[in-house]
Write a structure and sequence with these properties.
Elements lengths: L5 H11 L6 H16 L3 H9 L3 H13 L2 H8 L10 H8 L4 H11 L3 H8 L10 E6 L4 E6 L15 E5 L5 E7 L16
Antiparallel strand pairs: 1-2, 2-4, 3-4
Helix pairs in contact: 1-2, 2-4, 3-4, 4-6, 6-7, 6-8, 7-8
Amino acid sequence: MTTLSYDEALAALQELEATDKLTAFAVGDIVHGLVAQGGPQVCKRVAVDLGRSLAWVRQRDLVAEVFPPDVRTRLWHGEEPPPPVVWRHHWVAAGTDDPEGWLLKAIANEWSTRQLEEAINGEDPDAPDDVLVTVDAPAGEVHVRYREGTAAKITDAAVPGVSHVLDAQGRVLATRLRLPAECAGRKVRLRRAR
């Protein structure tokens, strides 16, 4: 293995970033090599010099450590990650007790990264989305219907224009939002319930 100077490694990182889907892995391999040579403090220097966050650099180092080239080749059975698996699948799996096992499950089931995260968290990765949002334009209402289990995570708050549809046990099944006229046409952002 050839040892690169810091400047040579930095130049290689910058060149690789825009090439293909293997770029993140190559970047991780170089970062991991730099960390192996200079210790964890090198992460901060790489982050500053690349204009990236420290978390970004540490993530690449972690993936390269957990999934080195020989392990990736064995898991992929080829030169590139099998679709739809991407670098982020590797990062999500790297934080578990069985990274290779989780990655193999993601490959076999063709899970998205969201589905992989749900499976790791003990949720059903094939369940429908947490919420279904519909708009009743004439009434000026947004209707949000929850998946079973998600409703249990919703806390009831006394907010003007918000009413909840409850089941016989008093659990929230859906939420009705009456929007003020000035909100018409605006984008709505929903966050997944965890």
